[in-house]
C-alpha cells in the first residue's frame, strides 16, 4: 500500500527535473548563449547546405523534367551555372563594389565641406523666417547636422565593410556547405523518407499525415515566394546597373546592389532603394541624383506592374493590407530579416488558421 501511495509522486519528478534545468539555464544565460553560438558556428556548413539545397532544388527538378535527364547530370548543370555566377560576382562585381564604397568613404570629408560652404553661402536666405529664434537655431545647427550626418554615413559604410569582410571570412564554410548540399539533393528522397518515418513514429499515422500536409503547404509558400523574389530582385538589380551605366551615374554598382537587395522587401523596399540611391549621388551631382531617382522609380514601376506579377504571381494570397502589416511587424520584431520573411510567415499563419476554422465548421 505504501508503494502505491508513493508511485503517483513519481509523475512530478520530470516536472521537477525540467524546472531545475530551466533554472540552471536562466541562471547561466551568458554561458548558454556562448555555447549556442559555438554550436551554430559548428553546424553552419550544414545550415548553408540546407539553404543552398532548398534554393537549387526547383532548378534541379526543372532540368530533370524538361530535358528528361537523370539526377546526377541535372546537379552537374545546375552547380556549373551557380559556380559561373559566383565566379562572375567575385571576379568582376565585388572589386567594383569595394571601389565604390572606398570612394564614398574617402570623399565624405569633401562632401561635408561642400555642403557646409553651400549652407554658409546661402544662410542669408533663412531671413524669410519671421521667428528670429528659429532662424538663429537653424543657422547654428545646420552645419553640426551635416557633420553628424557625414559621420553617421561613414560609420554605416564602415559597418557595411566589416560585414562584408566577416562574410568573406565565412566563405570557406559556404564552400563546405556547397559540397554537402550536392549530397542532400542527390539523396533527398531517402532524407525525406527518414523524416516521414520519424514524424509517423512520434505523432502517429493520422496526425503525421496532417503535419506532413501542412509542411508541404509551408514549403510551397516559402519556396515560391523566396525563390521568386530572389529571381525578380536579381533581374531588377541587373537592369538598374545597365540603366545607371547608360546615364553615366557614379556608384552604379553599389546603387544597383542596394536596389536589388531592398527590392526583396514588399512595398517599402523600392522606396528605400530609391532614397538611398539619391542620397549617395546627390553629393557628387544633384542633377545626376535626380536622374538616378527617376530611373529607379520607373524601374520599380515596371517591376510592380509587370515583372513582379509575371514571376511571382499570387503565391501568398495576402491582401496589400496584410502584406504591409507583415512587413511592419516583422521589421519591428526581427529587423531586416523580419521584413524579408514576414510575408510568407503571415501567409503560413493564415493557412493554419483557415485549416483550423474549416475543421471546426465540419464538426459543427
TrEMBL record:
Signal peptide positions (record): none
Single Gene Ontology BP annotation: transmembrane transport
UniProt-listed Pfam families: AI-2E_transport
Gene Ontology CC: one annotated term: plasma membrane
Key word Disulfide bond present: no
Localization terms from the record: Cell membrane
Similarity remark: Belongs to the autoinducer-2 exporter (AI-2E) (TC 2.A.86) family.
Name of this chain's protein: Predicted PurR-regulated permease PerM
Annotated organism of origin: Clostridium amylolyticum
Amino acid at each position: 500500500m505504501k508503494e502505491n501511495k508513493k508511485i503517483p509522486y513519481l509523475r512530478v519528478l520530470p516536472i521537477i527535473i525540467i524546472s531545475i534545468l530551466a533554472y540552471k539555464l536562466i541562471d547561466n544565460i551568458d554561458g548558454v548563449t556562448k555555447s549556442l553560438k559555438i554550436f551554430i558556428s559548428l553546424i553552419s556548413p550544414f545550415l548553408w547546405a540546407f539553404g543552398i539545397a532548398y534554393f537549387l532544388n526547383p532548378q534541379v527538378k526543372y532540368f530533370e523534367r524538361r530535358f528528361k535527364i537523370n539526377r546526377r547530370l541535372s546537379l552537374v548543370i545546375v552547380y556549373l551555372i551557380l559556380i559561373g555566377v559566383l565566379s562572375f560576382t567575385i571576379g568582376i562585381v565585388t572589386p567594383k563594389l569595394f571601389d565604390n564604397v572606398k570612394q564614398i568613404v574617402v570623399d565624405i570629408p569633401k562632401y561635408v565641406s561642400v555642403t557646409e560652404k553651400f549652407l554658409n553661402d546661402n544662410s542669408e536666405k533663412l531671413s524669410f523666417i519671421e521667428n528670429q529664434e528659429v532662424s538663429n537655431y537653424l543657422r547654428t545647427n545646420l552645419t553640426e547636422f551635416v557633420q553628424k550626418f557625414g559621420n553617421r554615413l561613414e560609420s554605416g559604410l564602415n559597418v557595411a565593410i566589416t560585414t562584408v569582410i566577416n562574410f568573406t571570412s565565412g566563405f570557406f564554410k559556404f564552400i563546405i556547405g556547397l559540397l554537402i548540399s550536392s549530397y542532400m539533393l542527390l539523396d533527398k528522397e531517402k532524407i525525406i523518407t527518414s523524416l516521414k518515418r520519424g514524424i509517423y513514429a512520434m505523432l502517429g499515422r493520422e496526425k503525421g499525415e496532417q503535419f506532413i500536409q501542412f509542411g508541404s503547404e509551408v514549403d510551397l509558400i516559402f519556396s515560391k515566394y523566396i525563390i521568386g523574389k530572389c529571381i525578380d530582385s536579381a533581374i531588377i538589380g541587373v537592369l538598374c546597373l545597365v540603366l545607371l551605366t547608360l546615364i553615366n551615374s557614379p556608384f552604379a554598382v553599389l546603387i544597383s546592389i542596394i536596389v536589388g537587395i531592398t527590392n526583396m522587401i514588399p512595398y517599402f523596399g523600392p522606396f528605400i532603394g530609391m532614397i538611398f540611391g539619391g542620397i549617395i549621388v546627390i553629393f557628387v551631382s544633384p542633377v545626376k541624383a535626380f536622374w538616378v531617382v527617376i530611373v529607379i522609380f520607373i524601374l520599380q514601376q515596371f517591376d510592380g506592374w509587370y515583372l513582379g506579377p509575371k514571376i511571382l504571381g499570387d503565391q501568398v494570397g495576402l491582401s496589400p493590407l496584410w502584406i504591409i502589416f507583415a512587413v511592419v511587424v516583422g521589421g519591428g520584431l526581427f529587423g531586416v530579416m523580419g521584413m524579408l520573411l514576414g510575408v510568407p510567415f503571415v501567409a503560413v499563419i493564415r493557412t493554419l488558421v483557415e485549416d483550423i476554422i474549416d475543421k471546426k465548421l465540419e464538426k459543427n
